[in-house]
């Protein structure tokens, strides 16, 4: 019987969990032997990964802090496990740089996922990583097209649309629910614009910031004060802790739409739809929930299938309409492009070519 090809999937950065299940399922379906290298925190957060993995190796935080120690350990694992391809779920940072340097003359092929194309613009660390990694995935067709203009690297893209869903009975909503992925943070969200937009909504709506909003943070304190001054605190739900996966899933599954809160001419626009894609897009595509997107981004073709576009003046009207959100959700559910099978096939094709 022919031996299975061994693929290593590596994530030691402590984030980007949402990109892993699509890859694990694709590799498992292709009958690959999967070696998973990660931190213990990530493994604890995602116990459902176990069913896909043949061998798991933990990289300790103390090893990551010493950088070369973690890189040397990973290199030993790759050699010992006879890995043919190593996929770096977050293909940047000092440990990845050191691993690439140590593996420069190894026959193991390295493939990376690049979460921000800003890394292609003059980053010395990324240039060193690029000596070993010649193939990159991006998480957006739009960003891949932008990257191709500035690099000769071999690139593809996929949407990590497979999420873990437990069978659960969703509670009956008493009012409309709009989810904002993540906590309160000015750099990633236009908070002042948000307050202005929701001030005149006439129907009952819950806006849920689905992430940790540190109650001691100056921007969280200021945001709460602004909501209180305008009598809007009852419309907005915040959490002072990281929410569980079950709660996250239940909340997104029962929401009416997802709001990235990325607006032009604000710090959020420097972060998203320019150098990287918002995680809200990935969640919306995976859960088949409409995106509420500022009209300034209506030129991004791939988001049109999911998006309802607004301006600050038209936001209330969009929120108060039920039929458009329902129609958009149905379109997304019927889309072949947003099916997990489509994305996993694209992922595997790039790995094998």
Give an overview of the whole structure:
The structure is a single chain. This protein is an alpha/beta fold. The chain folds into 2 domains: 170 residues, Glycogen Phosphorylase B (Rossmann fold); 159 residues, 3-Layer(aba) Sandwich (Rossmann fold). The chain contains 15 helices and 13 strands. Strands 3-2-1-4-5-6-7 form a 7-stranded parallel sheet, with helices on both faces. Strands 10-9-8-11 form a 4-stranded parallel sheet. Strand 5, helix 6 and strand 6 form a beta-alpha-beta unit. It starts with 5 loop residues before the first strand and ends with a helix. The model has no long low-confidence stretch (mean pLDDT 93).
Helix content: 25-40%
SS strand fraction: 15-25%
Total strands: 13
Structural class: alpha/beta
CATH class assignment of the largest domain: Alpha Beta
Profile the largest sheet. 7 strands, parallel
Q: Could you name the ranges where pLDDT drops below 50 across 5 or more consecutive residues?
A: none
Spell out the helices and strands N to C: EHEHEHHEHEHEHEEHEHEHEHHEEHHH
What is the averaged pLDDT score?
93
CATH superfamily of the largest domain: Glycogen Phosphorylase B
Distance between the termini: 24 Å
Number of domains: 2
Identify the overall geometry.
globular
Query: Helical element count?
Result: 15
What are the salient characteristics of this protein?
353 residues, globular, Rossmann fold, 13 strands, alpha/beta, seven-stranded parallel β-sheet, four-stranded parallel β-sheet, 15 helices, 2 domains, 38% helix, 17% strand
